[in-house]
Amino acid sequence: MTKEILLLSGPNLDQLGSRSPEIYGTSTLFEHVERFTHAAEELGYSVRHLQSNFEGDLIEAVHAARGHSVAIVVNAGALTHSSWALADALAMFEGAKIEVHLSNPAAREPFRHVSTLAGVVNGSIAGFGALSYSLALDAVEGLLTTP
Ligand code: DQA
Description:
The chain is α/β, with parallel strands linked by helices. It contains five helices and five strands, in the order βααβαβαββα.
């Protein structure tokens, strides 16, 4: 059976392409997901992607991934800075967990300097634009294959 990676996209990421292109670039979410999925499939993974503007949808997707997906790559958008509930859900997931951001929140407004997720994931990748997703996939592969 193919090992599944759950790719989660939080609020407003459905607007990528036209949303602040000077910060987030011009690629649409569909393009990021396509590139990620193609690269993951080359490595033998399948990808399930969910974008939602609703916190509960993301939390329920994490619950459903338990015992099913081998990894979660999550760009939670602004929920990164506020959602203790999503952090609690991710804490229960036993596989690899990578937090990813297109921009570098640490170099932006103060409210973006806190990540509720940082303490429950294996690691965070931020600030590399589209490359952030590729680096996140490298991180998943490394975590799952390095003894
Ligand atoms: C983001 C950074 C967040 O601060 C912001 O709220 C987003 C996008 C990023 O990918 O750079 O929605 O997660």
